[in-house]
Structures are given as C-alpha cells and as structure tokens.
Amino acid sequence: MGVNNIGVGSVGGARRVSPGLQCLVCGDTSSGKHYGILACNGCSGFFKRSVRRKLIYRCQAGTGACVVDKAHRNQCQACRLKKCIQMGMNKDGRSMTSLPFIYNDENLMPLAFI
Amino acid sequence: MGVNNIGVGSVGGARRVSPGLQCLVCGDTSSGKHYGILACNGCSGFFKRSVRRKLIYRCQAGTGACVVDKAHRNQCQACRLKKCIQMGMNKDGRSMTSLPFIYNDENLMPLAFI
DNA sequence: TCCGGTCAAGGTTATT
DNA sequence: AATAACCTTGACCGGA
Ligand SMILES: [Zn+2]
Ligand SMILES: [Zn+2]
Ligand SMILES: [Zn+2]
Ligand SMILES: [Zn+2]
Question: Is ipTM strictly over 0.90?
C-alpha cells in the first residue's frame, strides 16, 4: 500500500472503510473509488443495481430536489441516482453527467438508461 | 523481442496478451508463463492467492471433474486449483504434480497445502 | 520476462 | 423484494 493511499487500507484483498474518505453522493464513509468517484458501499451497490437492471425511478415529491445524505438516501431512489450521475458516477469510464434527463414528472432517469 | 516469442508483444513496458498463446488451465489468452506454465492473468492470480493464503477448497459436485475453461473457471475453485497443479503450476520452481491429493470427498487440495 | 502488489468491478451474503 | 457489508476476481503496474 503506497503512502498516497491514505485512508484506504486492505487486508487479504478486503476493502475497508476509513474515516478519512467520504462518499460524494451521501457523505457516508467511503472505502475508495467506485464507478469513477469516491463513494460508499451503499451508493456503489445502489448504482450497480440500478444500471444492471436498467431501473427507472420516479421522484415522489415531483421536484427532483430531495436531500441525499446518509440518513435520507433511501427515501428517494430517483434523486439518489440523479446525484450519483451528477457527481460523476459512470459505468464504462464515460461520464454520464451530460446526458439529458427527463423531468416531465414521469421519472428522472437519463434517456440513455431507458 | 526475439523471434521465438511469437504471440507476445510489449509496448512501453506493458505486458500484452496475444491470441497466439493460451492458458494451459482454462484456454484463455495468455501473456506468457506464470508459475512455470503458460497461464492467463486470471489463473495466475487465482493460483497466487490460493498458495499465499493456503486456501482449501471443496468440489461441490463431489466428483473433482468439473469443466475448467474460460466460461466455467470460477464455478469450482477446487477443480480449478487441481488443474493448475496438474498442468504443472508451482510456487518455487518445484513441480507439485506428484503431491498426494485428498480425494476422500472432503476436499481436493494437496496435503502440502494444508 | 516474470513476480508481487494493487484495487475497482462484480458476485455473495446477511439483514431488513 | 432492496440494501449494504463482505468477498473473489483479474487487469494493470512497478520492480527485479
Ligand atoms: Zn453514499
Ligand atoms: Zn426525489
Ligand atoms: Zn486460465
Ligand atoms: Zn469441482
């Protein structure tokens, strides 16, 4: 482990969380990079499931502006995935932040996901 | 690069795989010798981890005859490691093919691994 | 050339 | 069913 990898430790291949890093999506403790950005296990898994199953979420509030933090990240899947993408999460090393979003009160997913 | 090294190319020091060489364990493309035999990155890493951590695997099928190819190599660790050793993989330049195996439906690992 | 180390991706498991 | 912690894999890199 290099000295530059402060905050990221590994034992036997296991990835451990560390107080030094935090998730760009929800602020929870991060174990390192996931899909291009510093993210926690929760947001990493959520993004993985959403992309793999091509899930389409709808913001129940209709605003697309729900708070996404450790305490509320499971309250609105649409806003959580939106923030994942806005913070730079991507599947193939290609950013999705410039993709058009659907805000027509149907869902908040980028067109490329459908 | 010598003319004898057909199939193995390198650019800028990076090791590249080539269709000309294939892993003796699973048939995947190989980048050259690993632990004594032509092997792919996957089987090389698998053997490395197994030996280092002295892992003991069990064949769930109980036959010790699972297919080990690129598509199925992760289906049975016991049969993968068995084939690694049978094809001549070794840790210190000393062949393990003559080591006794345990076939008493407990596991398939060589005694020396335990 | 090859070996050891790295670490993100994907799979698995426990929990709810 | 979804979530998140844990685990295994393998492509890549630097060093010998
Ligand atoms: Zn998070
Ligand atoms: Zn919302
Ligand atoms: Zn192989
Ligand atoms: Zn088997």
Answer: no
pLDDT tens digits, one per residue of A77-102: 999 999 999 999 998 876 777 655 54
- How far, rounded to the nearest angstrom, does the alpha carbon of residue A67 sit from its chain's CA centroid? 14
Tokens 């330049």, located at residue:
B93
Ligand nearest to the CA of B79: 4
How far, in Å, is the centroid of ligand 4 from the Cα of A22? 41
CA of A81 to C1' of D1 (A): 19
B73 touches strand D (CB under 7 A): yes
DSSP H helices in chain B: 41-52, 77-86
- The answer to whether A47 CB is within 7 Å of strand C is no
What pairing do the DSSP bridges indicate for beta strands B10-11 and B29-30?
Answer: unpaired
- Contact status, residue B77 vs residue B64, Cβ threshold 8 Å: no
Residue B100 near residue B111 (C-beta atoms within 8 A): yes
- Locate A7 and state its tokens: 């905050």
CATH numbers and ranges of domains, chain B:
20-95 (3.30.50.10)
